Amino acid sequence: MPTTFKLLSLFLGASLTRSSVAKKDIVLETFGDPDNGGHPLPATHSWFALTDPVMGGVSVGTATALDGLGIFVGEVKDVPSLSAPGFIAMQTRGGWWPDLSSCEGLQITSLASQGYTNYKLSFGTTHVTGNSPYARGYKAPFEPGDGVYTDVMIPFTDFSDNWDAATGEILQTCESDNSWCPDDETLRDMQRFEIMAEGALGKVDLKIRLITAVGCDDGVVEVDPNPDDNIQGGRGQGGPIGSGGGSGGGGRGANRGNGFSSTDVEFVGNITPEILDNGDIRIESWPDPRHAWFALNDPVMGGQSTSTVDVKDDVAVFTGEVVDVPFLQAPGFIKMETRGGEFPDVSHCKALKIKMRTPTDYSGLHVTFGVHHAEETMPFVRGYKAPIKIGKSKKFGTVKVPFEDFSDNWDPKTGEIVVECKENSKHCPDEATLRYMTTFSIMGEGEDGEVHVEVMSIDATDCEYEDLDTSINAGTWVGIAFGFIFVGIGGFYLGRRSAGYLSVSGKDASNFGVSPVKPTQPLTSIRDQNNANVPDIL
User: Which residues form the signal peptide (predicted)?
Assistant: First the structure.
């Protein structure tokens, strides 16, 4: 065969091979509908709402994965101190993402009402040097179907990580300069994904059926090969429990996992407490945690503190370093945090009990829960906080923190209590928060230094109980009750909503034979009230 013909044959063969490479679409999220679009997959990520966390933003939003729909509702309002629109977002962090570096773009199947049009998709955590510390990830606008479910495809070439932090509008497009295009590192593992409403005032009502990556190579793995290492809803985000990443230098690709306060809303929590043999109520324990825990570092003024959260030897390990925020020349903060999920009613208890140890000499540890805001404090001072008094030790010990040590009036720079609960009872944890905490975190703040904390369990202790009425079987709801199956962020939970007060579960009641003291307000209304007050927590 002549050499020229051989070369031509090889060239044509290679061209045909390239042009005939099989392509496929990859489902990224079905929001829990096993039949959605013919794709038998559960909800694969924990979704939560995020609202403008800086300068006292007052936008409100909720995010729910329910019956095969992602439901994103709320209202974008002006940030009072800026006189400009804030934002709300439906976000997920961590978990497992397929390698999308061979794909053409993303497709979102959605329906919008209320006439709001400033929607955007964002993913990743890259940061452009010189841009606002809040401007992270690649972003692109999209227009959902108006009153009808519509497939909208957004090519990756429409995304850019150079955008205006005030409006979300793209400043430099990927097509004009490919240095702003999504990089392969991010496409191989998005780490963070969000649907946003920003840059315009208005009410938001968006329903999403499906999020898909389109035009991907046929060989791309679609199912997590190591699900035990990436269980976001039960074991965390971004790893076995989660990693907040670091704030390493501020260039593109740095500070992964940093930047915002996240907010779980509209998540039906656990309303049946687990009562231990000693009468304590279990809030959390490892290696089988009830919550998705993640690291969150100082999100203001370009903070450079770093932290991670992981599980090792059946304990939660929270490590990192608190360093000065350069602009403020004062220590920042790091925290191990969870939002929403299963919180029991502990309003009849008197203290927290944390089984933990710390091999480092760090005295800036605090514990905080709830989203309550004291009127005389700054807008972002939310939740009840107390110091954790523990010495350096290689052995696990029990730290008891009375609820009367907590206050919602604390210094945002140091975490130190300004007005104690004992001085003024209006700053003590209120019943609504103790019945459904909404958020919980362990923090390092107000002092520079290395932090290493290992936590085995978190309980409420010194709880008061009433004897069960012998005419009522253990595990029966006391009051008017009805059962239902609900879907929460991060997976399915089987539970019940009650119009009355709560008893212990059948298993726990048979072991302990008691029920909590009757509270004064149904838990469902308290949970909804707490979630409505959840905008931005430092």
Answer: 1-22
Are 401 and 386 a contacting pair, CB within 8 Å? yes
pTM here is: 0.51
Structure tokens at 169: 């509008």
Exposed / middle / buried, residue 231 (Cβ in 10 Å: 0-12, 13-18, 19+): buried
* The residue type at 100: L
Q: Where are the domains of the chain?
A: 23-217, 281-461
Q: Which residue has tokens 């004992």?
A: 422
- CATH architecture under which domain 23-217 falls: Sandwich (2.60)
**Could you read off the pLDDT tens digit of each residue along the chain, which spans 538 residues?**
554 444 444 444 444 444 456 899 999 998 875 554 444 444 568 788 888 755 567 888 888 877 788 999 999 999 887 788 999 999 888 778 999 999 999 999 999 998 999 999 999 988 887 776 667 899 999 999 999 999 999 999 999 999 998 889 999 999 999 999 999 999 999 988 999 999 999 999 999 999 999 999 999 998 888 766 655 433 223 332 322 332 222 232 323 232 223 333 333 334 478 899 999 999 999 978 888 888 888 865 567 888 999 888 899 999 999 999 887 788 999 999 988 777 899 999 999 999 999 999 999 999 999 988 787 777 667 899 999 999 999 999 999 999 999 999 998 888 999 999 999 999 999 998 998 888 899 999 999 999 999 999 999 999 998 643 333 333 333 332 323 222 233 332 222 222 222 323 333 333 333 333 333 333 443 444 444 444 333 3
Phi-psi region of 425 (alpha: psi -120 to 50; beta: other; left: phi over 0): alpha
Angstrom distances, CA of residue 529 to CA of 152, 349, 369, 434, 436: 35, 21, 15, 13, 10
Q: In angstroms, rounded to a whole number, what is the distance separating the alpha carbons of residues 464 and 347?
A: 9
Beta bridge partners of 444: 334, 365
3-state secondary structure of 125: strand
**Tokens matching residue 223:** 């199912």
Domains 23-217 and 281-461 share a fold: yes
Q: Hunting for tokens 């091999």 — which residue is that?
A: 359
d(CA 124, CA 190): 5
Instruction: Write down the residue that tokens 């290492």 correspond to.
Output: 229
Identity (one letter) of the amino acid at 521?
Answer: Q
- The residues near 453 (Cβ < 8 Å, ≥ 6 apart) are 317, 318, 319, 336, 356, 357, 358, 365, 442, 444
Cα within 13 Å of Cα(493), Cβ side:
20
Tokens of residue 426, six digits: 């209006």
> Is the distance from CB of 329 to CB of 265 less than 8 angstroms?
no
CATH of 281-461, one of 3.20.20.140, 1.10.10.10, 3.40.50.720, 2.60.120.430: 2.60.120.430
